[in-house]
Amino acid sequence: MVTTMDGDAAVHERRHVLQDLGWEIASVGDERHGQATVVAEMHVPGTPHLRTSILAVWADVVAGYLAVDTIGPRVPVTLDLDVHLYRPAPGAGTVRGTAKIVKSGRSVFVAEVDFSDQEGEVFGFAAASFVPAPDATLSITTLTSPNPVAPTKSRLTVPFAERAGCARVAPGVAELTHSEEKLNASNTVNGGLIALAAEEAMLSLLPGATVSSLDMRYLQPARIGPVVARAEVRDGLGRVQVRDEGNDNRLCVVATSRFFGV
């Protein structure tokens, strides 16, 4: 989940990175539905396909809305997040996500998300689990309050990795800088943006590929940054460790992935 931002949302430097992805959320009975228009700046570099890490961001947000209803006013933090695609994600049109509750408990909450394209065909699915933030003094408003990452009227105008401040710094290594517009409700680096860093590290070793399956395990928050992802890929299977370099290089996330085009 993501945090509120102080100041004018029209100021680029103060607008949360996720706002530019245009992910609109609506309540439909016990479900939450999200949708957004895919633009070229959301593509995996060198391909016509939407980034799987963006689907991870969208899954985290729409499932997180459901988690708030159960875990709130405590802040839900992501424990596990995975995305799996039947085929490469679409590169244009509208993508929709339907989130449903799998387990609704005060200690652990689990939701699943089905992703469909503009024609209504399901092309992938995701699951996310959440737990209350250890710091009980943190709280989050209910969803009757304004969405802190509601999409703005502006669209993403630069590649997503550039907008997020995520760069490939060496083969198999990607670095995500730390800044306020990348934080979540516990004031640590947003888990979906960590998925971007993991994706970038792996794809730096596989030009032209796209991620077909991404599994993220969140071990501890990334508090200081930069967040550094280091990947290795063998026989089409990717493995990533993500560390908080500014916080004694602590291991924050482990991830695994498989790919289309390999």
Offer a few descriptive terms:
12-stranded antiparallel β-sheet; 262 residues; 3 helices
Average pLDDT rating: 90
CATH class descriptor name: Mainly Beta
**CATH architecture field:** Beta Barrel
Using only C-alpha atoms, the radius of gyration works out to: 17 Å
Structural class: mainly beta
Main sheet, how many strands, which sense, barrel?
12 strands, antiparallel
User: How far from one another are the termini?
Assistant: 32 Å
Low-confidence stretches: 1-13, 142-148
Tally of strands: 12
CATH topology assignment: Porin
Strand content: 35-45%
Q: Share of helix among residues? A: 10-25%
Q: Helix tally?
A: 3
Our count of domains comes out at: 1
Give me the strand/helix succession.
EEHEEEEHEEHEEEE
Let me know the CATH homologous superfamily.
Acyl-CoA thioesterase, double hotdog domain
Shape: globular
Structure in words:
With 262 residues, the chain is mainly beta. It has a single domain (12-260), classed as Acyl-CoA thioesterase, double hotdog domain (Porin, Beta Barrel). It has helices spanning 52-71, 160-164, 191-203; strands at 24-28, 31-37, 76-85, 94-104, 109-116, 122-132, 166-170, 173-176, 210-218, 227-234, 237-244, 250-260. A 12-stranded antiparallel sheet has the order 1-2-4-5-6-3-9-12-11-10-8-7. β11 and β12 (250-260) form a beta hairpin. α1 runs antiparallel to α3 (191-203). The longest helix has 20 residues, at 52-71. The relative contact order is 0.18.
